[in-house]
Amino acid sequence: MHVNKLKILMIGPSESGKTMIANYLSESINIEEAGTPRPTQGVRIVEFELPNLSVNGKNNNIDIELWDCSGDHKFESCWPALRLGVQGAILVCSPTTVQAATREMELLYNYFVSQPNLSAKQCVLFFNCTNDNDDMDALNLSPTFSKVSQVAINLKTGGNRLKIDFSNYVTSVLQALNKES
């Protein structure tokens, strides 16, 4: 299977920073220029290219279709359409959403990863830290997440690290898709 375009959903509770992460990864905005967050209405699709991504020893240019999904449950009726043809899922939560996140992450994982039969390698959890004291252990996630990569990210201090983590995640998705074919 040769994949040139990936459909990846970015999902998580409202106000966890999904849009800022999507904008940063697609180079739509510098973090210093980010204004006041506004809730995403439904979904926003951001398209960009990851050039020279090494997968199984070959360099590839991968087109990314990143679906920045609202965390508001009033859009739940759209979920079946969002999930159609999904090849990867990025779960995002932050210290400010940690109380609601545990149950919410389980629900989102079940619907967007388990039900469409994505492997744990096609999913990653980004814990969007706002300062160096934020602790991922506060999440207290269920054993469901034991095989899912969990990455603490900080856009203010580690944006370049986020791009590396995202590229590694995309490589993992492509390898999982190649195993299926």
UniProtKB/TrEMBL annotation:
InterPro entries: P-loop_NTPase. It holds the Pfam family Roc. This is Intraflagellar transport protein 22 homolog. It comes from the Eukaryota.
